[in-house]
Amino acid sequence: MTGVTSAAAEPTGPDESAPTADPTAPAAGQGAGKPRRARGEQTRQLILETALRLFRERGYAETTMRAIAKEAGVAVGNAYYYFDSKEHLIQGFYDRNQAAHRAAAEEVLAAEKELAPRLRGVLHAGIDVNAPYHSFAATFFKSAAEPTSPLSPFSRESSPAREAAIAIFREVVEGSNAKLDPELRRELPELLWLGWMGVILFWVYDKSPGQRRTRRLIDGVVPLIDRLVSLSRLRVLRPALRQVLALIDSIRRDD
Amino acid sequence: MTGVTSAAAEPTGPDESAPTADPTAPAAGQGAGKPRRARGEQTRQLILETALRLFRERGYAETTMRAIAKEAGVAVGNAYYYFDSKEHLIQGFYDRNQAAHRAAAEEVLAAEKELAPRLRGVLHAGIDVNAPYHSFAATFFKSAAEPTSPLSPFSRESSPAREAAIAIFREVVEGSNAKLDPELRRELPELLWLGWMGVILFWVYDKSPGQRRTRRLIDGVVPLIDRLVSLSRLRVLRPALRQVLALIDSIRRDD
DNA sequence: CCCCGCTCTTGAACATGTTCAAGTCGAGGT
DNA sequence: ACCTCGACTTGAACATGTTCAAGAGCGGGG
To answer: Given a cut of 60, is residue A12 above it in pLDDT?
Structure first.
């Protein structure tokens, strides 16, 4: 009994409004949906909440499904009713940080019009958001790395999350006053997202205190990208640009 | 058989010569060594051999430690006497392919003096060597991805294997007739290796038939690298080159 | 020849992710 | 009021990676 959700719950309609103020619930197009009822949704949240807390407290590998179930006051099997596997619990973490990144990015993008600082700000914001979880992000990073895993950023299951992430970078480009080759402009958001994945990869491996090497990477790479992008308008470099874009296109073909 | 290592085996010294014709045995500086005797080494090989065969036949996840032990005719615990974990068995696969790549690369490098075809040849050779294992390389790729895993290409345990791999790219550069900035020449091998890791990453995710997208990636990227490297000698681009090298240096600092 | 010590081997026991058959619960129809 | 059906819940059972205490085998010193 959260008491918050309106009493007039539609009979069969899933209740999508989050009981507490957190950006998790919508979760963007879960798989083949079982038509959740209010009670179920509450249990689901409880399990997810408990799991993420324990992950942060003890680490991913050290948190057993039994511990999660016990702490949440349900049976182990119940967790598996809502989540296909232990790894799937991570998706919740994923979505949450994604939302937080978006929020932090908005703030940066509202204040700045130049491409370079926009990009730099968004990247740093992303690291800021994830920083508290660095130690255990590494632990479950391998789950995301496996190509067949639904957690992979390239998987079909993560497609909505991926699109949302790319959208941030689209806004970085679109909202900037940078003038650049139109075709490049079209491709750039996805390329920047790919770069962001690279930064995350670097960050996961970065054991320097406070991950300051990652910060330096961002600060060093952004100006280079900025310069490269500006150069894209030079007539002399047109052929080179075409070549690169053609390469990208050829690589994308046939998946 | 490598046949290079001297036949005079010291009494208590570990017998490093492989009983069968395969390039696995040396395995470059295993952890704190238990002084293996001949019998033990033979068992070790047997277990590794069996494991790799089953991995190829059934896949990594589907091969249980019990199955390996049973097939090899030993007890489960015995496998754990020689290998710290199931993942550690992969290191054997690793080393073997590394050696095969080196051999294939030598052949290419002996025949070609221009930088671009040398690089291209070595990259394609690497893919050739790994191609038969693509389907199950993906399965255990996650093991390598975890930063804390000894299997990570960046881990201290893989240091010898990594050095060996970088050496290939050093030969690509050193043996070529390309004239390039001396400082870049010094850094290039490691950068190319890093790029190779990127290619592998792409390859693991590449689901196109025959991984032809990876081939296209190689064919497209090599000319770009070649051109970039040539340009590094232009006086106009000196500052940019310095900037990039300084960035790399700053990122490398404090691990 | 016997014993000591070390390498090597064993298999049962353990921990934990996952599955499943058997329920319980509650809303909607009759 | 009762029935039904599907969402939800349970906990024991299972599969598998890993550990460990106990030994077996063997080489060398006395």
So the answer is: no
